[in-house]
Every structure is written in C-alpha cells, then in structure tokens.
Amino acid sequence: MPVDTKRVRGPEESQSPLLFLPSIAKKSVAAERGRQDGRRRGQADVRPVFARCGLVSQAKGSAYIEAGNTKLICSVFGPREAERKDEAGASSGRLLCDLRFAPFSCPNRGAWIPSSEDKDTAQGLLEALRPGVRLHRYPRAQIEVNVLVLENDGSALAHAITCASMALADAGIEMYDVVLGCSLRLDGNSFLLDPTLQEETAGEPGAQGSVTVALLPSLNQVSGLQADGDMREDTLAEAVRACMEGCHKLYPVIQRALLRAVHKRASPSES
Amino acid sequence: YNFTYPFSSSISTANGSALVKIGNTTVICGIKGELTCPPSDAPNKGYIVPNVDLPPLCSSRFRPGPPSEQAQVASQFIADVIDSSNVIQKEDLCIEKGKLSWVLYCDIICLDYDGNLLDTCVVALLAALKNARLPEVTINKETDLAEVNTDKLHHLNVSKHPVSSSFSIFDNTIVIVDPTVEEETLSTAMMTVVTDEDDRLCMLHKPGGSALSGEKLQDCISRAVTRHREVSKLIEKVMDSFEPDK
Amino acid sequence: MSPRKLCVPGEKLCSTEDCIPGTGTYLRHGYIFAALAGYVFRKNEGEELPVISVVKETEAQLLPDVGAIVTCKVTSINPRFAKVHILYVGSTPLKDRFRGTIRKEDVRATEKDKVEIYKSFRPGDIVLAKVISLGDVQSNYLLTTAENELGVVVAHSEAGVQMIPISWCEMQCPRTHGKEFRKVARVQPEFLQA
What we know:
The complex is a heterotrimer of chains A (271), B (246) and C (194).
Chain A: E1 49-53, E2 61-67, E3 70-81, E4 94-101, H1 116-129, E5 141-151, H2 156-170, E6 180-187, E7 190-193, H3 197-201, E8 208-216, E9 221-229, H4 233-264
Parallel strand pairs in A: 4-5
Antiparallel strand pairs in A: 1-2, 2-3, 3-5, 6-7, 6-8, 8-9
Chain B: E1 4-7, E2 16-22, E3 25-36, E4 47-53, H1 69-85, E5 94-96, E6 100-112, H2 117-131, E7 133-139, E8 146-155, E9 163-170, E10 174-177, H3 181-186, E11 189-195, E12 201-205, H4 214-242
Parallel strand pairs in B: 4-6
Antiparallel strand pairs in B: 1-2, 2-3, 3-6, 5-6, 7-8, 9-10, 9-11, 11-12
Chain C: E1 6-7, E2 12-15, E3 20-21, E4 25-28, E5 31-34, E6 38-43, E7 51-55, E8 69-77, E9 81-89, E10 92-103, E11 126-133, E12 141-144, E13 151-154, E14 164-165, E15 170-172, E16 179-181, H1 189-192
Parallel strand pairs in C: 3-7, 10-12
Antiparallel strand pairs in C: 1-6, 2-5, 4-5, 6-7, 8-9, 8-11, 9-10, 11-12, 11-13, 14-15, 15-16
GO molecular function (chain B): mRNA 3'-UTR AU-rich region binding
Domain Exoribonuclease phosphorolytic (chain B): 10-135, 162-225
Family (chain B): Belongs to the RNase PH family.
C-alpha cells in the first residue's frame, strides 16, 4: 500500500471496536413485518426530509439535505472556463461531479483516498443529473458539483441526486427540471423504500436487489436508473413505479426549500 | 470580534462530532475511535491522528485530489496543538499496556472556507473531543481478546482547553482579529496564537510575511488571552445546553 | 402590488398560445417551462403576446457569447497574437477567469498586414473587444478589436502613469510626454459606465 505522506498518519493497522462486539449483540434485522423505524414495508414510505439551500457562502449554489440520519452537503461552482478541452466540450458545457464519503460517515472508518465506491456513486450522480441540466446553454464552460456525505445511513446516491439538483437550482444554472432521487431495497418479496444502511446491508441472502431512480418530476421522466441484484422483469417495473411515487412525495418539500431560498434574497428590480 | 457559533451536531456513525461556524467559515469534525497496538516506544500511550481536509466543496480555490499544501500545514498545525497543549493525556487512551490502545482519528472537514480556518478547526476539535464517547473495552483474561461493551460509554478526559486566535497583519500597523478570506489574501502576514485556560502559550504560528515588532506581538498575545476566555465560555455554554438531552 | 409569482425549474408556466418564451424558460410540447428558480415576469413588448421570463435575483452569470462586447486585460503578447483575460461581459463582471486571444489579423479592419502586436497592445492594458468565435478544441475565445469603438481604453506608460489617447494609434504619457503606440478605442459614451 502506498504511504500517504501528505497526511498525518496513524498506526499501521487499527481495528474498529465493532469487530470485537460479542457476536450475540448483532441483532437480527427487522422482524418479519414492519421496519425498525416504524415505517411499513411495500409502501411509499420515505423518511422525513429536511432540506435547505445556500449554506456555503463561497459557492455559487449549495444545498444541505437530511433524511433520517443520512446527511449530505453539496456545493456547485461555475460555469467557469473548462480545464480540459475535448471534442465534445466545444458546443456544450461539461458537468463534473465529485462525491466523497467523509471518513466518519460510515460505521467503519473510511480512508481519505477516494474508494471505488465514491467514484461509482459520483458517476451515477453525474448520469442522473446530466439530462436535467441545459448544458448547451453553457458552451465551453464547466459546472462543478461537489457532494460530501457527512453521514451515510442508506440511500446516499438517491439523496445526493436530490441535493445536487437543489444546489444547481440555487446556483442559477438553467435546468429542464429538478432531479429527484429515490431508492428501494428489495428484500425477499417486499419493498423497502428509502432504506437505511442497516436495511441495505443486512437481510437473508437470495432475492436481494436494490434500485435507485432519478426522476424529473414535472416532466415525469426518468433520468437515471440503477438496479442491481436479482429480480424479475415485472418486479423491476413495480420497483421503479414505487420509487417514482417516493420521488413525488419528496417534490413538495424540495419545491418549498427552493422557493424559500429565492425568497430570502432580495427580489429583483422590475426590468 | 466576529461572533463564534459552535454547536455540536450528532453524526451517529462517529464517536464524537461537532460542527462549528465562525462567521461564514464552517468546519465539521468527526472523531472515530479504533483499537490498535500502542507505539513500541511508548507502550502506555495511544494515538491521536488529526487530519484537516479542504475539499473543493468549500471554496473554488481548492481542487480535487490529494491534500493541498495548505491542508497539510493545517493538519500539522492541529497535530502540534494536540501535542503541545496536552488536550488529551495520551496515557488515557491506553487500554492495556503494550497490548491495546485507542487511536482517535479526528477528521476535520471544511464545509465553507471564509478565512480563519485554524481557529475554527481548533474549536471544532475541542468540541468534538468533549462530546466524544467511547465504549468500554476490556481484555478477556482467558482468551486474550478484546471485548467491547457498547452499553457502557464514557467521555474522554479533556484536560486542557486550547483556543487559537488568528490575526491578519497589515504592514506592522493594522491587526485584524478573525480575518475573512478576503482579509487574509490582502494582508501582508498572518499569525496564530494558541493559549490554554491557564493563559499559557501552547503554540505560536507565523508563517512568513512581513516582520512584526515585539510590542505588536505582545499585544496579539494578550488579545489572544482575552479571546480565549470568551470562546471557552461560549463552548461551555453550548456544551451544557446539549448535555441534558443525552 | 401582489406578491410576485415564484417558480422552480421544471414548472409549467403557460402555453405558447398565451406568451412568448423569454429568458430563463424553455419550450417543450407547446408549453413554456421554467429553467431557473426565481421570479416570474410577464411583460408586454408591443407584440400580440406578452413575453414571459424567469429572473433570478442574483444576476445569472453570463458567458461570453459570439457578438458580445467584453472588457479584458492583456496578459501576454507575441508577434502573432495577444492573450487576454476576459473580465466583463457587457457590464456584468465575471466571477471566474476566462481566457481569450486577439490574433494579429483581428486587431484592426484596415491594413491588416501591417499590424504589429507590439504597437497595438502591451501587457496590463484594458481592452474593449468583441467575441468573434468561441474557438475550437485548442484555442480560447477569439476576440477582435477591428472597429473604431474597440481597442485599448486604459493603458499605463513606462513611467507607470495612465496615458491619454491623442490619436487612434498613439497615446501620450502626461508625465514624460513620451508617446507610445496603441490600437486606441474611440470610447462610446454608453460604455463609459461599464
């Protein structure tokens, strides 16, 4: 392993205290019906969301979102001069996404060096956002989206999508629509909408899968879909429908947060 | 003085955490404890590993990638503050001499960079250390393995309360406390003084810049001492208000 | 006055039969949608239908566009072109730095072959120019000063004093009375405020 000379280093090895828990303590997850936080299975039951815009003073636009214990912050910079010039960049703008999990965001401490999970999630985020942004309005420029997961309690990608699109709207980037994300965990025969981390990782093997949907709510178009695991065609269609329903539940909250951010600033002069 | 707003936040995946806002500058500190072998040259001590990160999120001046020079300087600064002020007795982090000790990873991430990073980091670190709680760990005599009891949590023994005060100096004449990023870039020199509650100097950091007369230096130090009282009073108050519901 | 209507991106504002889409909006399936989060304005401009636009309180950041008049600062020169930083588009300051190039043949409209960059610009000059192209893969924005109104507006002499234009191709230093060559702009009153 390469030595990271640019940071203060700790001991060579260390173990999470969670490893030393007596094994009995590992509770069997989620009794047959119901979920630990009282939501019901198979229903469009999303966690309550707290959303705010415009927290980062240095950024063009920013947003913070909190759903259950999942907490994310996102800031948007740009449009600014594109750093890398390639064929595609000349006629339309480029969208750059960077997503990081803070080292303390997961039960086991993450490393500072971005893992493949960070990059995968960033890629998923980029693909979900791109159809929503009017990039052809920003030729030769790039728009940077930076997301930091402060605490990951499941559905990080889905909320990152929502948070990033709020930040883009706050930055005054022209968009076709806000992009909302919602994810779902298939556990046996039932759906767990907006799963927590525990629900994402646990569960009996077999018949497992997860779906993340990004939706443009007012156009009712799906801009991103990520599904893995083992599921039948009709199950997937049903899962996507459930996610879309979850997105529509989220929409009024996001709308209100955006309008409040617009309202907070001085209203423009009549021109 | 700009006002300081420290407030604890609850990142449940961390052992301790704090979000601190001074002016516009916002910093979050998360502490995670892990178990490791104590260093061989000091078998009765644990580790504290602080790292400051300036992600591109907090300001357009930072690029993604490995930590910038400024982030490295800040990390080293925080590490030096911890060492020189004895904020935590490293002996307290030892569980069994020569066998097992805690390593506290203090990850400090800047969320909004508007100057005065070091002061904010120190307050965040202190607040996070104060609300950090570690599970009880015992070593099973028979199996020689560690056993963790998450039901019994205990606080860290924070013995000292260092507070840092940064000054922007303009040509040895004007001194600004708690500078914003604009003031920092315009100033000719920066200085950071860290004091503890016994009014002792823990650290003095003046990276280059224009020269400073002895009187001005004394003036800054005495101002840092007064500022320490205000800031620590504020931290105390906020920590108290959070205590009852825990 | 009634509270102004607010909208978020993607909100359906009205049909194309009622309004003409303005800034901050886009058309789809015969309806006008909002592209920004901001205030909705309807304005009659003498046409049959009012123009509907969405305005965000903080002036949406402009990008240099073909035909736009930009204010820039010369950063470096060589015999073939001058490199500049674009500071303003119209009268709106840019937050981030954009680079542009003024080629030798774009300095003035007449006697293009006799142009010498050294006699037209010096690093540090403030220049009014017009965007002629967004550039291709390797190059930056291409700018031109081939109009009477375009060219150097502020320049400093070797003595470090701001110079006064005396003709379309010369400027004079008030301290040393030395003359230096520049491609001087005849500044239009409407740009003086920018």
